[in-house]
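Hi support team,

I submitted a single chain yesterday and got back a structure, but I'm not sure I'm reading the token output correctly. Could someone confirm the output below corresponds to the sequence I sent? I've pasted both exactly as they appear in my results page.

Thanks,
R.
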Amino acid sequence: MEVVLKHKRKDAWAGVIKYKSCFDYIAPALTRSGNRHTGLTEEEATRLEKELNLGPNTLAPYSKYWVTFIIKVTNKELLLDTSRPWDELQYLFLKNHHRVAIGLNDLKPGADFVLINKDSEAQESNRINKRKRDAIKEFDKMSLEDMRKCLRLFGYKADTMSAELVESKLYEQVEGSPEKFFSKWVNNTNKNTEFLIEAAIAKNIMRKNKNAYLYGTDIIGTSLSDAVSYLDNKANQDLKMTIKNELENK
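Hi R., thanks for writing in. Yes, this is the structure output for that exact sequence:
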């Protein structure tokens, strides 16, 4: 397995990750018992001692070995191949260190570095790119009217936008937030009723007061999903039709 150790962020003052001639060091932290936190289990330590031709207990947490053990980090990435014993030792130490986050989804505040599995990173990148491609395919199927409706669900008033601007604005959303696009439009079975509600609010046919959705003085829901359920109820189709007609006449 190949893993990469990267600096988590740029220096706030200098705006660079690390100056070329500067270094950082990651060393074992002391535990409450006075030993050093190595990140290795007893079994891993015993196995790596043999593979690295070290004496028994050299990698034990109380060993003097860890007093001088450091990992030097430059302004470049540190590439480790865990099929090599020395690299595996560094990897096991780093992945359990308080200054190191594991993966881009675990960027804990106290971490200065992030350790990334290159295969996992590639898989995640491929997943995101595929999701973008799928979103763009769905985008290509949309009519101009659909695009205007979708933009309304994204919070844009698209009624008076030109066709070119509508397409451009929606494409930005699709490419930048494909999951949101699937959630708000592609996989949203309530999108037409949600659009009706949002458009009615924009034209003062309905009102939203905090979490309440109102038509006149009547509360039809205390959340968007409640309002959708109310208007989609067969018993309330006359009201839904009334709102549609008012929208068409405004």
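A quick pointer for reading it: The longest strand covers residues 2-7. Let us know if anything else looks off.

Best,
Support desk
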